[in-house]
Design a protein that fits this description.
89% of the residues lie in helices and 0% in strands. It is mainly α and 131 residues long. Helix 3 packs across helix 4.
Length: 131
């Protein structure tokens, strides 16, 4: 195996470490820029300033942003996740409480049995519920 001797294990390990370091670095940059552009409490000039700081001095800018805004980033993410969960819960509740076609047909049948609607009206409601 001539390849194995040309590229020893520690070189492979170092290459993997550097590769994953770059992946984590870009993940941090995307996180910082994503948080920065989602913020409503920072003006456009402030966003430009942070962007220039992160682009011109990437390590220092990113670490300072994370250090100064880390707690607020977590709070904003928690609020965003809570809002998404509330929206999903509201949607599920609105869909679940309607009861679907079976409930509508059952209600129409009760109206038919009580004499409030005719057989033709019942069939129309039934057809509407099933479509």
């Amino acid at each position: 195996m001539p390849l194995a001797s040309d590229y020893p294990f520690l070189d492979v390990f170092w290459t993997l470490l550097v590769f994953f370091g770059w992946v984590i670095w870009f993940w941090l940059l995307i996180t910082v820029f994503g948080d920065l552009f989602r913020r409503h409490d920072v003006s456009g000039v402030g966003k430009v300033g942070w962007c220039l700081f992160v682009i011109l001095l990437p390590f220092l800018g990113t670490l300072i942003y994370l250090g100064t805004q880390g707690k607020q980033m977590a709070e904003r993410n928690a609020r965003q996740m809570q809002a998404a969960q509330t929206q999903m819960d509201d949607h599920v509740r609105s869909v679940a409480t309607s009861g679907g076609p079976a409930t509508e047909i059952e209600n129409a049948k009760k109206l038919l049995d009580s004499g409030a609607i005719s057989q033709e009206e019942f069939e129309a409601l039934k057809h509407k519920a099933l479509s």
